[in-house]
Amino acid sequence: MKAVEVFELTKIYTTGFGKQTVRALNNFSIEVEDETIYGLLGPNGAGKTTLVKILLGITNLSTGSAKILGQNVSDYTIRKETGYLPENHRFPPYLSAEEVLKFVAESNGINPKSINSKIDELLEMVNMTKWKKAKVKTYSKGMMQRLGLAQSLINDPKLVFLDEPTDGVDPIGRKEIRDILARLKAEGKTIFINSHLLSEVELISDKVAILNKGNLIKEGSVDELTTSKEIYKLSFDGNVLESDIIDISSKYHLESQSENIFTAKLENSEQLNELIDALRKKKILIKSLLPQKNTLEDMFISLINESDKEVKNG
Amino acid sequence: MDNILVLAKYTFKEALSRKIFLTFFAVSSLVLFVFLYMAVTIENSAIFEFFRANDNATGISERIAEAVQGGITFYLFAGGLFLSIFSVSSFIPNMLEKGMIDVLLSKPVSRAQIIIGKFLGGTVIVYANIIYVVVGFWLIVGLKLDTWNFYFLLTSFAITFTFMVLYAMIILTGILTKSSILAMIISYLIFFILSPLLAAKDNIIGLFESSTLEVILNFFYYIVPQTAELAQITNYISTGTFEFDTLPIFVSFLFMILNLAAAIFIFNKKDY
């Protein structure tokens, strides 16, 4: 069973008594495997939050279908198995952390006998034990985020949606949240993260999707997305001058990066083998050959730029 | 059902935490205290004199108690509902605040359960306060005149029913506009102006002799909750008179159900 199945989902918002429409999601399809961490990336207004809200029944879909844990998202009972940390969430300011968690636990139909121990366990996990009795109105942004994470886990969900989970959290707190997510994944939970913080998503996600203006523009594992298949980094043993390989370099787009280090832009793996043969023919010793890696951020920016250009060019 | 009770409980808790319940209780206690002070300081003979009654006449205490409780019912109906509307009008707009509604809707609770839970919670808060005041007045009058009119206690149900009718409309307005001020204004408009005006529709029609006006007033008479008539019914109940026209109860009940149904329907369709 897939944790999330979205098929040709479209969401159109209408404003001004139906005079204006905004297409927040456009024929969007994805599948999220069980027990994985799935990162959804995109610039502001890409439709990330809309997608999560549709999956949780907070927003209605226009066309298409969406299922979580095998059930239609319109069935509210499935939310017994899900947790959600919304972006910029708020809790009633007159409640304490303990009371917020109690309310969420009771809304989830959790056995009253086990609520108190669960609350203590979660507050300890997010480092909020000493704030248990303090009113929410006294909390900082980071504390609110920690409490938000705790409430999303109160029902021991199979699938957790986190919208900007490290927003407003200091670097140490971010590391703690990353560790919690890794622990949750090890416990067999599926985690769906929306984030602007690409470096964080890169560190923890098994699979990533990039969304721009309501369209899915790329999906794959972090490795697949960050590995540039055509570009290889070659280092040679001994001195190799550009003039020694001038005939090869034009054919295989070899460029010197520094002494004995070159990059090659190749069409396919056949060409890669041809290059190796050509170098060996010239008695050049290859020390290493590595596919060039980009950061997720490099790839994200280039994909978004390309997608924007395509939209502009119609 | 459990979800509805949880939501009702937290609506009650919200009223407690935001001092709504406390304010309500304090105002009620103050009114009761003033009344108790009057009861203690004013001699019974002065009361009989005020009512121009002979204190030896049979059943005179009962009749005076009825008159006093009738007056109390009038002020309790108007004042109690004024305060109640003020107290609950922010429940829905607060719930719909960005960030707050996301958390609530992501839980395994249907939107209908949320509306019904809020409705029940608000009703319980108001009933608790109304019964406190009604029992308080009943005890003071009973002890003072040594007469126990149990019908007076039933007014708590009649006042709460009128509140429920208006509260259903407050919920619908809250869902549509997210504005507590607007919900309050519309309720007060119906309660203090429109309904009393429509209750006097026959006089107005007779004054202007316009068939168009007659159609308009009759139309509104049957769709607007008849709170003026409900006030009169409450007064009848306080004296143990149960022979009254039940149409206002039926129209108001229908109004309440339709408003709640519309609130649930629209809430289900809305995106947050």
Report low-confidence residues of chain B grouped into runs of 5 or more. Answer: none
Bulk shape of chain A: elongated
Biggest sheet descriptor of chain A: 6 strands, mixed
Rounded Rg of chain A = 25 Å
Main β sheet profile of chain B: none
Side-by-side strand order of the widest sheet of chain A: 6-7-8-3-9-10
| Share in β-strands of chain B | under 5%
Number of strands of chain A: 14
With helices defined by DSSP (H or I, 4 residues minimum), what is the helix count of chain A?
10
List the uncertain runs of chain A: none
Give a written overview of the molecule:
The complex is a heterodimer of chains A (314) and B (272). With 314 residues, chain A is an alpha/beta fold. In chain A, 35% of the residues lie in helices and 31% in strands. In chain A, β12 and β13 form a beta hairpin. The longest helix of chain B has 35 residues, at 111-145. Chain B has helices spanning 2-17, 20-41, 44-50, 60-88, 91-95, 100-105, 111-145, 151-177, 180-199, 201-208, 211-223, 227-238, 247-269. Chain B is an all-alpha fold. Classes of the chains: A alpha/beta (314), B mainly alpha (272). The interface between A and B is medium-sized, with 31 and 28 residues.
